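sorry for the late reply, my laptop died twice this morning and i had to redo everyting from scratch. anyway the thing you sent over, i finally got around to it. pasting the sequence first so we're on the same page, its 160 residues, then the predicted structure underneath. double check i copied it right bc i was rushing
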Amino acid sequence: MRRGVETGNNPPVSDRIEPVVRIRCKPEEEARCLAALARAGFKGERSLTWVVVRDAPPDAVNEALAAGGAEVRVAARERLGQLVGWLLDRAGRLEGKAVNVEALVSRVLDDAGLSARYRPRPAPELLSQAAAEHERLLATGAAMLRWDDFVDRFCARRDG
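ok and here's the structure:
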C-alpha cells in the first residue's frame, strides 16, 4: 500500500481512521473480499447488506481489496468516483450547481455510513471546493480524490 508515500500521479493512501468502512458485497464475492482484507491485516464482518471493517482508513481498506484481487470496492470510493466524474464532466462550469454538489457529497457520506459524523459544508464552500478540486484533477492528471482530502474539503464534523 502507498500509505503516506506519493508516487507519480497516485496520491498517498490516507490514514484517517473512520469507525466503520462499508463494502457493498454480493454473497458470492464475500469470501474473496474477506480473504483480501485478512491478508492486509483487516477484519471484515457481515452487517446486514454490507461487509464492514471497523476502525480503519477507507483508502487503505480499498487498496487491500484491489491488491487482494477482490472485485468489490469500499462504498465511499465508488461514490467519490462519481463525484470526480461529475466534476470532470462539468468542466469547471459549476454556477448554480451547489444543490448537485451537496447531493453528491451527501451520497458519499450516506453510503459510507458516516452521515452522523460528517455533513456537507455550506453551499458557497462546496462550490468553491468543487471548482478547486476540478482544477487539481486537471493539474495532476490523477482522477482520484483521497478520503482525507474529501473530508477536509467538502465536509464538516457534526460534533464540532
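Strands lie at 18-24, 44-47, 50-56, 118-120, 155-157.
thats about all i looked at so far, will dig more tmrw
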